[in-house]
Design a protein that fits this description.
The chain is 43% helix and 14% strand. The chain has helices at 9-15, 19-39, 83-90, 124-138, 154-171, 178-191, 240-244, 255-270, 274-294, 298-312; strands at residues 42-43, 51-52, 56-62, 68-74, 98-101, 108-111, 114-118, 202-205, 213-215, 223-225, 230-233. Strands 1, 2, 3, 4, 5 and 6 form a 6-stranded antiparallel sheet that branches.
Length: 328
């Protein structure tokens, strides 16, 4: 009997380069078949091709009572480790609803959203407004739920970066100016465990960009977040992905000023502190630049350097104009 799903070639290419990736790919067809049987669902429509994002296979399915859903099979990497806990804490509403999961957490049953309607195609002012509303609803205070144990501390992450960034910057041949590294390290000091305002800490969706916000079918104006990479810390940490995506929508005559205006609009929409959002975004993009440089993605590293520099109010030498940088 043929397997219920053929892994898309783009997803195969992404994970064939590592042993763990090849192991995951090899086990996917059997895992899909077992999950269809275990949850009592069928591909919808029969023979439906799966969807996929950067780190997961997603299969649209339907229950016997005709309820639509999806089976999500995430690649087991650290950034996906918080997904079940975060979705459980949010309980639907502002985030996709978790309907069920297998014991190993290798298959999640989620409500079905509309994959063709994301904030990527929404006019930027409306996208900012929708994003801000979701951030406010996702920003949960800590409770006595055991799910919180799976959510890492953002302040501790900042402290760790304060140790790692300088050595990595040196090891990679100082890929950008020292003043930008120092700007990131200053954020680690001011927003890390020392001096942080812990009373403001909430559950944060750290990857809440335009493509991770999907429309809810049948609910006019209804959107929900997907693919959480959750942390516990200042809500302003969520802003950065909305800055480094859709750079093509910046004013070409004044892109740096346009980026800062977007930052201000996002903070107004989500009722966030602009300085904190700017700080976290600088740190995140400096860390991203080093990550990209380490794997040879120099165009992406330049994009991160451009965004971080623009947020500091300075221009970094040697960076192409924003319209020549690769899209995120």
């Amino acid at each position: 009997m043929a397997p219920a799903v053929v892994v898309p070639e783009a997803l195969r290419r992404r994970y064939l380069g590592t042993r763990s990736g090849r192991t995951w790919l090899a086990g996917l067809p059997e895992l899909v078949d077992a999950s269809l049987t275990g949850f009592g669902v069928m591909p919808d429509p029969p023979g439906a091709a799966p969807w996929h994002g950067h780190g997961a296979l997603v299969l649209p399915v339907r229950f016997p009572d005709q309820t639509p859903a999806v089976l999500k099979f995430p690649f087991p990497h650290p950034e996906a480790a918080t997904e079940t806990a975060a979705l459980t804490l949010w309980g639907g509403g502002a985030a996709v609803r978790l309907l069920d999961r297998n014991a190993a957490g290798t298959c999640l049953v989620l409500e079905r959203l509309d994959p063709d309607r994301t904030l990527l195609t929404v006019d930027l002012p409306d996208a900012v407004r929708i994003w801000g509303s979701l951030v406010r609803r996702l920003s949960l205070r800590e409770s006595d739920s055991p799910q919180w144990a799976a959510i890492p501390s953002l302040a501790e992450h900042a402290e760790q970066l304060s140790d790692e960034l300088p050595s990595e910057w040196e090891a990679l041949g100082r890929p950008f100016e020292r003043w930008l590294l120092e700007a990131a390290l200053q954020v680690c000091q001011t927003r890390g465990a020392v001096g942080r305002r812990s009373a403001r800490d909430v559950l944060v969706h750290a990857d809440l960009h335009y493509a991770n916000i999907l429309a809810r079918p049948g609910i006019p104006g209804g959107y929900a977040a997907i693919d959480p990479q959750a942390v516990f810390g200042e809500a302003e940490y969520a802003v950065a992905p909305m800055l480094w995506n859709r750079l093509e929508d910046l004013d070409p005559a004044a892109p740096e000023e346009s980026l800062l205006a977007r930052l201000a609009a996002l903070c107004t929409a989500a009722e966030l502190d602009r300085n904190a959002a700017r700080d976290w975004s600088i740190l995140r993009e400096v860390a991203n630049a080093l990550d990209y440089a380490r794997v040879g993605r120099h165009g992406d590293a330049q994009r991160s350097v451009w965004v971080a520099s623009a947020l500091t109010g300075r221009r970094h030498p040697g960076i192409p104009p924003v319209e020549e940088l690769p899209a995120a």
